[in-house]
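Folding follows sequence. Below is one example:
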Amino acid sequence: MKNEILETSLKQFLKYGIREMSIQKLVEPLGISTKTVYKYFKNKEELLEHALHLYHAQQYKMLENLSEDQKAVPLLFDIWQSAIEITYKVNKVFFEDLRYYYPELNEKIEKAISKKYIDKFIQIIQNGIKEGVFKEVIIPEVVVDSILVLYAAIAREEVFKKYRISLYDILSNTIVLYMRGFCTEKGIRELDAHIRTLKIQEGVMIAGKKRPEGIRKSIKNPAVKV
């Protein structure tokens, strides 16, 4: 029951935000009383903290699943494509509430999970340098922090909404352009080939009357050269 409460609460937080969600509203889909919740969590903030850990654990699992036997360039592209796709489904109120009403908890969670993520990204960058697809002169830590800044602007802010373009087009004009800057010629060829493959896959899906969900719906006329 504890896991069901946690998973349901996370979905409710992500869909509706934090401030307006009472314990009762969080567990309404389960049809249980608030007393049952308090057997496992002392208050809403503790429930939120556990829900945030679950959210990041799910994100990291996605990262690990993507990284199996994949080269650095397509892997880095797929990670940020998937991350933006997932985060864009979250109500922006959730991130606003977290930063404004729970800044200490937000900072605590960020500190707890950031090193694990950053270490993984740095490893990917270093692998790319060994593969000859990323330039040797780059500083992996700086590259990763720069991508994280772009990601935050894309996924959690309203900066790009005014353009009314697809998530893929936003990705193409931000993170993908930045990637091309630290790729070698070999890396650029691999990046272009990967994007071209995704476009072909999209065409096949449309022909079969099926579409992949999320930003892959928009893989057409990307800003990058293919």
User: Anything to note?
Assistant: Residues 103-131 form the longest helix (29 residues). The two ends are 50 Å apart (CA to CA).
